[in-house]
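Handout for the seminar on molecular recognition.
Each group receives one record of this type.
Step one: identify the two inputs.
Step two: read the structure output and locate the region that could contact adenosine-5'-[phenylalaninyl-phosphate].
Step three: write two sentences on what you found, then compare them with the reference statements printed after the record.
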Amino acid sequence: MTPEDWKAKLSLTRDSFLSALIKTDSAGIAEFETKYLGRKGELTLLLRDLKDFPIEDRKALGALGNALKTELSAALDARKTETGAGAVNLEKSKFDLTLAGYPFPRGGLHPLTIVADKMYDGFQKLGFSIAEGPLIEEDYFNFEALNFASDHPARDMQDTFYVDLKDSRGKDLLLRTHTSPVQIRTLKNQEPPVRVVSAGRVFRSEAVDASHSFAFHQMEGFYVDKNVSMADLKWTLEAFMKDLFGSSAKISFSPSFFPFVEPGAQVAVSCVFCKGSGAACPVCKGTGWIELLGAGVIHPNVIKACGYDPEKWSGFAFGAGIERFAMLLYGISDMRMLYENDLRILKQL
Ligand code: FA5
């Protein structure tokens, strides 16, 4: 074949391609493509014949052949679009177009979950196991068995959300106001010695501000055995705080009242920000101490309500606000930041 013959064949291929393309519909387009541009297609074979020409001819003819291939491929694509042959049939397609694109944004644990896990870790090292309790609670477990008489003003300390449903004792169900009911539920099911921590959401009808919310998180801890005293409580909390905040952390107890403990205390940790030295510290307000939790020796009436002899068994309990710990560990001054779900903030924590 001479170069002139090859050019003539190329021209014929172009003419037959373009005139046949106009008549091809979407059903025939794949076959059409194979006929001209497939591995053994007319244009492909013609380009393959170039190998028999001397190098100078091959260069010139090759340029013509490639230009035609580009032109015909573009014409084919245009025809595909025109006839709808290139469109994906969404119903038959095996691709799920609703899936998020790559890369998938990876989620992470919420700071409150991370802090609760750290607290769990600390207490597990001290031999505590984990228990859970329901969020919708009975008056008996939330108040009565915890030594709150039904008309006792101490109930006002925890403004309660009630549910319009009665429990088995005919009282309104409520959203638990603290995690302390887990003490009762656990002790009624498990004989002492018992050493348990339990974290979860609690609810109070309170106005929201930088350090209060109507739904927040607490961690309850309690230990019931023989001869458990305030000294055991102090040692346990001190070991836990040093583990969490570093060995220089100190704790202080000041007297406080909760009906389910006697004696009761508010426990504060030495300010981890100013280490007690800064009169202008915005976190401890210059006092050197940050209040973290309520605690005490479990009241004999509570031990009795759980079915045990308070002469034989004694225990300590504490209840901590997890948000307070998160604020300290992350250096946050307003706990609403933990609830607003602003990813720019959550990603920094
Ligand atoms: C109690 O809830 C007791 N059940 C704690 C307790 C358990 C005492 C066992 C003795 C023995 P109090 O109401 O103080 O106590 O709450 C405990 C902690 O929860 C507080 O120190 C504070 O950190 C946190 N807290 C209380 N109210 C709120 C609120 N509205 N928003 C956020 N955190 C709160």
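Reference statements: The chain has two domains: 3-83, 111-346. The beta strands are 129-130, 136-137, 162-166, 172-175, 194-203, 215-225, 251-256, 261-270, 289-298, 314-321.
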